[in-house]
Structure formats: structure tokens, C-alpha cells
Design a protein that fits this description.
TIM Barrel; eleven-stranded mixed sheet; alpha+beta; three-stranded antiparallel sheet; 2 domains; binds zinc ion; Immunoglobulin-like; globular
């Protein structure tokens, strides 16, 4: 899909030129759509067919799925023809462009990027450094009309914040990939993925955080398997079409979650409001974070409201419930 097509869909959705989100609600004609943007099938190293995989997500309350096999684009037309006769569920085409860089001293970087709705299969480009290889892949993905997200930056400790910042023309990355081998939490002196995110945002780079399953295993389950249902995005737009979903992701009109459900996210230039859907007897802690990864405020109210002072640079929010499940709210920019 070409970006020109996306431009036509922009008018339906919610982010104005000033970066303000308008209120979500029935009257706005907008809905939240639940989806996973990173899934494997037998077309690479997954254990199940695209049909079985898509059906798992449909039957577990998702609205859409992006099938992203390694260096392979699965044809999703047949799947969508089947689902069109049932409840609304959409399969988007995708590819995990799977590249790598091995340095002269033997270091290994896994350079994996998801292309959502590419026009064609994008082969890994290769290159003379991590940044050069990633940039060549990003350029090829953009040329194929795809939306790009950079995957699991801490897998093999492949990226520093400086390397991520040096690559241009992408603005989605996986802040939470739920494959068991990807080191989201950092450690041993390496930053966690949220710290990488804050480093990019502090440099003034527009970057949105995606949560995904990176699911491979639908037949066996356990902490050592890459199972479905662990991390997803909730995308806010007017209709369940590939154009609307891609366009909303592109604008950052979504939040990411491992379980917390949000009903409203609103930024009017003066305050950022986050309203949780309260479940059972859970308690919520909302941290508002700004420049340098600094915690600006912690709120326990619902809705949680942060009033902008003007010198934050950006404000994003992390909502954690009393069972440790998280929602990541995308950044907004202050003056
Ligand atoms: Zn990967
Ligand atoms: Zn993957």
C-alpha cells in the first residue's frame, strides 16, 4: 500500500496537525480495535498454518492480525475472504525483514524490522554497520509502501539508543515484545526498552511504542514458548480497514498493552487525560514521564490527569495495574 492512499484516510482519524488527540467516544465515530502486529506461521519458523493462527486471534477477541513471517509475505486474501463471511476480523499482510550485522570483532546484531502491508517481498539489504544495514532495510520498506516497526532492540543487545536515533524515516518500535528471549527489561548495564524510548524522545525524535506477541507457538505453551495473547495494540480509528489501521498506527493513535484496558486518552494541549476501564478490584498506578525519562507525576485517580507545565519536552504515560499488567500511552509533545 502506498502512503498516498494513507493520506486519503487521514481525515477520518484523530490527530490534528498540532498533535492533539480529540476525545474518544461514541459521538466521535471512533472505535478501539485490538490487534497484534507480529506473528509467525509455518511460512517461517512458526508451528501453525496462517489459517490456524488467524483463527486463534479471532477467537480470542482480537479485531486484526498482521502476519509477519521472516523474509516472506503471506498472501492474506484467502483468509480475509473466509473471515468476511463471519464477524469482522481483518488480516493484514506483513513481513519481518530479517537481517543481521556481524562486526569485525565478532559481535552480532539481529536487525529485524516489520513491514506492514508491503507491496512486495523485501529482501534483507545488508550493510557495513548496524546503522547502515538498518537504514537500507528501512528505505526498502518505505519504498515498498510499508509501515515500518523496528523489533525487539535488546534481542542480542543489537541496538544502542544512539544507533536507533541515527536511523531515519521510521517511528514505531517494540517497547514490549513478548518473545521470551528479547530482554525488554535490560540488565547488566544495558538499558530497558523504555529507557531506549526515552532516549529517542529526549532527542526530539517522534517514536511510538508497540507491544506485540512475536508469536511462534500455538501448540505448546509455557514461559519458554513464544505464545500468543501476551502483548497487543489498541488502535483508535473509524473503521476496520487496512488503510485506517495503518494510518492510525502511523500517527501514533493507539496504545499498547499487556492487559490494562483504557477507555480514553485525551490531550488538549494543556492536559493529558488517561481513563482506565476498572476491572474487578484492581488498583492502578499511572506514571507520567517526560524528558530524560523523568517521572513527572504519579497518579492513582481514574481518570488520571497530568497538567502540562510547558518544559517537559514530551509527556507519555505508563499505567500498571496491581497484578503487574501494563499499558503504554504514546507521547504527546509540549511546547
Ligand atoms: Zn525478530
Ligand atoms: Zn518475529
Amino acid at each position: 500500500m502506498k502512503r498516498l492512499l494513507l493520506a486519503a484516510a487521514l481525515s477520518y482519524c484523530t490527530l490534528s496537525a498540532s498533535g492533539m488527540l480529540r476525545a474518544y467516544g461514541e459521538e466521535s465515530g471512533l472505535r478501539w480495535y485490538k490487534g497484534n502486529t507480529h506473528t509467525h506461521t509455518v511460512n517461517s519458523d512458526g508451528d501453525s498454518s496462517p489459517d490456524v493462527v488467524a483463527r486463534w486471534y479471532k477467537e480470542h477477541g482480537y479485531n486484526f492480525l498482521v502476519v509477519t513471517d521472516h523474509n516472506f509475505v503471506t498472501d492474506v486474501q484467502g483468509l480475509n475472504a473466509v473471515f468476511a463471511a463471519e464477524d469482522r476480523f481483518l488480516v493484514l499482510s506483513g513481513e519481518e525483514v530479517t537481517d543481521s550485522y556481524e562486526g569485525p570483532e565478532g559481535g552480532y546484531a539481529a536487525i529485524h524490522l516489520n513491514a506492514i502491508e508491503p507491496d512486495h517481498v523485501i529482501p534483507p539489504a545488508g550493510g557495513a554497520s548496524v546503522v547502515e544495514t538498518t537504514q537500507a532495510d528501512v528505505d526498502a520498506m518505505n519504498a515498498a509502501g510499508a509501515l515500518v516497526h523496528l523489533n525487539h532492540p535488546n534481542f542480542h543487545w543489537s541496538y544502542s539508543a544512539g544507533q536507533m536515533a541515527a536511523v531515519k524515516n521510521y517511528h514505531l518500535f517494540e517497547v514490549a515484545n513478548f518473545h521470551p528471549a528479547v530482554n525488554n527489561a535490560g540488565g547488566g548495564g544495558y538499558p530497558c526498552t523504555e529507557a531506549l524510548w526515552d532516549s529517542l524522545l529526549t532527542r526530539g525524535i517522534r517514536m511510538y511504542g508497540v507491544a506485540s506477541d512475536d508469536a511462534h507457538h500455538f501448540k505448546e505453551s509455557g514461559p519458554e514458548y513464544a505464545n500468543p495473547g501476551r502483548g497487543w495494540v489498541m488502535v483508535r480509528c473509524a473503521a476496520l480497514t487496512a488503510e485506517e489501521i495503518v494510518s492510525a498506527l502511523d500517527r501514533g493513535d493507539f496504545y499498547s498493552s499487556s492487559g490494562v484496558v483504557l477507555e480514553e486518552i485525551r490531550f488538549d494541549g494543556k492536559s493529558l487525560t488517561v481513563r482506565m476501564k476498572e476491572e474487578r478490584n484492581l488498583k492502578y498506578t499511572v506514571s507520567f514521564i517526560g524528558k530524560g525519562g523523568k517521572t513527572l507525576a504519579v497518579a492513582y485517580d481514574n481518570p488520571a490527569v497530568y497538567v502540562v507545565k510547558g518544559d517537559e519536552g514530551y509527556v507519555r504515560a505508563r499505567v500498571v495495574d496491581s497484578n503487574g499488567r501494563t499499558a503504554w500511552v504514546q507521547p504527546v509533545w509540549t511546547k
